[in-house]
Amino acid sequence: MKISENIKNFNKVSEEIQYPVLPEVVSVSSNEIKQLIEESKHTDRKRMRLCTHTDPSHGLHEMLIVHEKDTYVRPHKHLGRTESFHIIQGRTDVVVYEDDGNIREVVQMGEYNSGYNFYYRLNQSLFHTMLIYSDHLVFQETTSGPFDPALTLFAPWSPAPSETEASGIFLKNLIKDIANITASSKL
């Protein structure tokens, strides 16, 4: 695994994740966002995460995240946790599901001046995913910590990211489903 140069005042701990070196005051400029976007293009999963909390055990997790277009985010839910997104740059739909895989709601999102929702909060433990339309999506995610992978459940009706062909088909079908939902809501 090639780990590129750290973003100023951040330490890269994996191909996709960086934590602050000096956690007392954490600030991020457009230069760091540009670097995150560039670095996301060169990761296996086409994403980067700049954590502004000190480590995975912290009680509040705030992250700046970049996903490239067509990034597959497997539908998942977090047990006993809320999460919120604030879109900084780009366009996405957050798709919320019932446990059986039927779409419950589509939250169309974009940056503040886009005319779309720029903020959402998920207060219940519901399966959800993102469908990214722009070349890249930059967003802030906030959730409670500490991080415990056992508290994230992946939808059994969705393919694992390692199932490349199946996840590609899943995304194509999701695009069609959302187009149908959007078209019927305009009637």
UniProtKB/TrEMBL annotation:
InterPro entries: Cupin_WbuC, RmlC_Cupin_sf, WbuC_cupin. It holds the Pfam family DUF6016. It comes from the Bacteria. Residues 30-108 form the Cupin fold metalloprotein WbuC cupin domain. NCBIfam families: cupin_WbuC. This is Cupin fold metalloprotein, WbuC family.
